[in-house]
Amino acid sequence: MDILPILATLRRHKAILWLLMLEIALTCAIICNGVFLIAQRLQHMDMPSGIAEHELVQIQQAPIAPPADRYARAQEDLATLRQIPGAQAVGMSNQVPFGGASSNGNVMLSPTQPHPTLSAAEYFGENLVQTLGLHLVAGRSLRTDEYVDADVLIRELADGSSKGFPMPMLVSQTLATRLWPQQNPLGKLVWLAPTASFRVVGVVETLARANAYNTATAQYSMIIPLHMGADKDQSYLLRTRPEDRQRVLAAAVAALKRADPARVITHSRMYDQVRSDYFQDDHAMAGMLVSVIVAVLLVTGLGIVGLASFWVAQRRRQIGIRRALGATRTDILHYFQTENFLIVTFGIVIGMLLAYGLSLWLMMHYELPRLPGIYFPVGALALWAIGQLAVLCPALRAAAVPPVVATRSV
Amino acid sequence: MFGYYLDLALRSLKRNKVLTMLMVLSLALGIGACITTTTVLRLLSGDPLPQKSGRLFYPQVDPNGKEGYIAGQTKPPPTMSYVDAMYLLHAHRAKRQAVVALTSGKIAPQQANGRPFFSDGVQTTADFFGLFDAPFQYGSSWTAADDEGGAQVIVIASFLNQKLFGGANSVGKTIRMNDHDFRVVGVLKPWSPQPRFYALDLGGHDYGGDGDAIFLPLKTAIDLKMGPQDIECYDTVTNMDDLAAAPCRWLGVWVELPDQAAVADYRTFLANYVREQVAQGRFSRDETALPDLVGWLRDQQVVPDDVRLQAGLAYGFLLICVLNTVGLLLAKCLRRSREIGVRRALGATRGAVFAQFMVEAGIIGLVGGVLGLGFAELGLFGIRHQPAEYAGLAHLDLSMFLFTFVVALAASLIAGLLPAWRACSVAPAPQLKAS
Which domain holds residue B235? Predict the structure, then answer.
């Protein structure tokens, strides 16, 4: 297939050629960056929580009159919930991964450190490892006798005494690697306040924070054996089989209301809902990006169809002459397909530069990482595909031009 | 002459229906996407209090420690502690001022079968309503004496009044909240500024909703341990129960400064206060800030990044659609070289040919605009059903409706420039010879 005759023909229609190439270039830039943004969002949505997401239900409640002893109330509620048939494990927590409302603490590696090393999520509650289905990779879980009531701890801190310290605690593996790289974290100490020291007794594989803004710090979590007592900010968590969740949730809510009719159940939902609520913006943005990419490809495709039809109509006589001189239908078809391929290739070359430029601009204004090289071919492939698809119909119509057109003078 | 061009344009468009449809459709898609995203962007970045935003200011001080501090670069945090807020309040250096934090209360309705429920609200000082021009339906705000004494009084929103008292004048009536009796002193008309600027960074949502349900004096909320929604402690806390003294920041302060002189005066006052605190050893940083309402919204980047990105994408899409239209119009014009040649031979000037093709482009623009409006409504419908904070607000108003047609006409006329120019530079003689 001779490229030179095609190029010579294109030179005569410079204006339309440039328009088409510019359009293809812009489309390429948008597709490359769009697909990258979609991949970013999907990756963000894929963040692991470390818990048994499909087996958990969460209930939050608030009593009308605060109970005299909220720790006793919490124990009563937990006992009530344990009676629910189908509840494999029952626990309490002050926050859940991707729950939104978070509780964090400043971690120091020595009590006299002037400023903290980092901030990590503080998980308080009861029976978290078993209920959340956390995976222990080193050490042991927290024992029931190691738990202390929050009031007691606060009083000790206020007195300045370090009587109950160091307390045992669990850390996530990411946090352990960050604080003590290449060392065994078991037995190491951290300080959350000058007199409050904690010793690592176990490491869990993954436990995401409630507010994981930054992917780098999303897994910095600690589990501390502190009883918080029944409160409107605490969550009761039940672990059950996925198919039993609805039933167990309803039974649990009913049981809690029976135990104290004067309480308000503020939230009762399956954990899956928590996760999908947290990532709903990413989900919506990914959906919007997909529709923009489809729309852009559609518009460009329609443009190519229109322009190719115009060229075929304008060159009817020439096609007729070629056919009369012996070109087969296939030759004409290939001619138009090759011409389209060349135009799209030129457009893609400009498009790559535009895509790079666009990615730099996005990096500056929207704090996105640089476009990785793997996404450039994506735009190119998409445009070659849509170009060939779009030119098929006009090219087939061109191939159907009969040779007798060459003999007509109109 | 214009009627003639219109006639010619319509004929030509009808002659090649498919091409016309293609052009109108692609332009309409681009316009629809643009208008949808621009509407949402305009909604979210609008001024919530246009008649007063130039006079409302948000003082900020920085109680954090020395580490991580780069003089001139580190910005002060968005909230301040009780001690600092109360000092600013009691200094009375502004025409009006208010201290704000968010809270929630458990309301037990008086009816026998009424279930208790939680209501979100604001703990603040008496001047809050005058400061933000919050309109009252019944009653008025509480007094400064109520503020000092921690009186159990409450101002409620119109929808809460509807729920509890059937919308009647409930001033003087009692609401049982958190096991205490609160006396209603005022009921607001429906008031829900978008965004909820007074509550930025205090917790909760920025857009959407019917507004806060309850407003009560700050001291009352502290006395009754109705804690703020969001609290950040910059130092070790020994007694969490004593919020007033704890080294934590959880309050926002708003002041009304009527003119530039008052603003300069307040800035000096704030800087002096911070310098004093640094000298006393209480503060380590002497950064202060005093943005006005619009500046504060901008600093806090209240418009989500996603929305701005979507608007940018839509304009890129419109550009592609315009390029598409130019190409197709150019193709159409070149096909009609013969017709143009005949017209020119009969005496039409270049300008006449140019005008004819611009009118054609204009018609495509108008039809594209109408269709684009339809697509925009569809897009906004989709957004209204998205689970986003601002979803309920996405509606097309009159100015956006007119903007649609302006954009459509501008886009199509710009698209028509190149083809019209190419058409009017066609030499008539070669076209008239038998081809």
Answer: 53-299
pLDDT value of position A262: 80
pLDDT at B435 over 60: no
Which of A345-364 are b and which e, b meaning 16 or more Cβ less than 10 Å from the residue's Cβ? bbbbebbbebbbebbeebee
**Could A284 and B434 be called an inter-chain contact, meaning their C-beta atoms sit closer than 8 Å?**
no
* Confidence band for B332, pLDDT divided at 50, 70 and 90: confident
3-state DSSP call for residue B280?
helix
A15 in contact with B at a CB cutoff of 8 Å?
Answer: yes
Mean pLDDT, consecutive 10-residue stretches, chain A (410 aa), reads 82 86 94 92 91 93 82 91 92 92 89 85 92 92 89 79 84 94 92 88 94 86 91 91 92 91 88 91 88 91 90 88 90 92 94 93 86 89 93 91 80
Within 10 Å of residue B46's Cβ, how many Cβ atoms? 14
Let me know if A240 is exposed, middle or buried by CB neighbors in 10 A (0-12, 13-18, 19+): buried
Beta carbons of A207 and A51 less than 8 angstroms apart:
yes
**Mutate: best of B31, B118, B308, B317, partner A, most A CBs <10 A:** B317
What count of CB pairs under 8 Å joins A to B?
127
pLDDT band at B114 (very low <50, low <70, confident <90, very high): confident
**Residue B236 to chain A, least CA–CA distance (Å):** 7
What residue of B is the nearest CA neighbor of A23?
B320
A302 at interface of B, judged by CB pairs closer than 8 A: yes
Domain final residue pick, B299, B321, B347: B299
Would you call A62 an interface residue with chain B, using a CB distance cutoff of 8 Å? yes
The verdict on A292 touching B (C-beta cutoff 8 Å) is: yes
Please indicate, yes or no, whether residues B157 and B291 belong to a single structural domain of this protein. yes
The pLDDT tens digits for B272-292 are 999 999 999 888 888 899 999
- Interface test with chain B among A17, A23, A24, A213, by most B beta carbons within 10 Å: A23
- Do B387 and B326 reside in the same domain of the chain? yes
Q: Do B67 and A193 touch (CB under 8 A)?
A: no
This prediction has a pTM of 0.83
**Beta strands, E only, A80-234:** 89-93, 104-107, 118-123, 125-126, 136-139, 148-149, 167-172, 189-193, 196-204, 221-223, 226-227
Same domain, B295 and B312: no
> Do B128 and B39 have their domain in common?
no
Q: Which of B299, B328, B360 lies at the terminal end of a domain, its last residue? A: B299
Q: Give B 146-185 residues with CB within 8 A of chain A.
A: 179
Q: Cβ of A296 and B317 within 8 Å?
A: yes
For A63, which residue in chain B has the nearest alpha carbon? B106
What are the tens digits of pLDDT across the range B239-260?
A: 777 888 888 899 999 999 999 9
Please list, in sequence order, all residues whose beta carbon lies within 8 angstroms of the beta carbon of residue B399, skipping any fewer than 6 positions away.
none
Same domain, B417 and B321: yes
Q: How many CB atoms neighbour CB A86 within 10 A?
A: 15
In 3D space, the residue among A402, A401, A269, A375 whose CA is nearest the CA of residue A28 turns out to be A375
Which residues of A are less than 8 Å from B238 in CB distance? 157-158
Name chain A contacts of B418, Cβ cutoff 8 Å.
15
Given CB atoms, is A23 within the 8 Å cutoff of chain B?
yes
Chain A closest CA to B352's CA: distance in Å?
23
User: Which residues partner with B124 through β-bridges?
Assistant: B100, B217
Same domain, yes or no, for B326 and B177?
no
Q: Residues near A209 by Cβ (< 8 Å), separated by ≥ 6?
A: A95, A97, A102, A104, A120, A121, A217, A218, A219, A220, A221
How many domains are contained in chain B?
2
Cα dihedral across residues A293, A294, A297, A298: positive or negative: negative
Residues of A in contact with B29 (CB under 8 A): 295, 298-299
Q: Is A285–B29 a contact, with Cβ atoms under 8 angstroms apart?
A: no
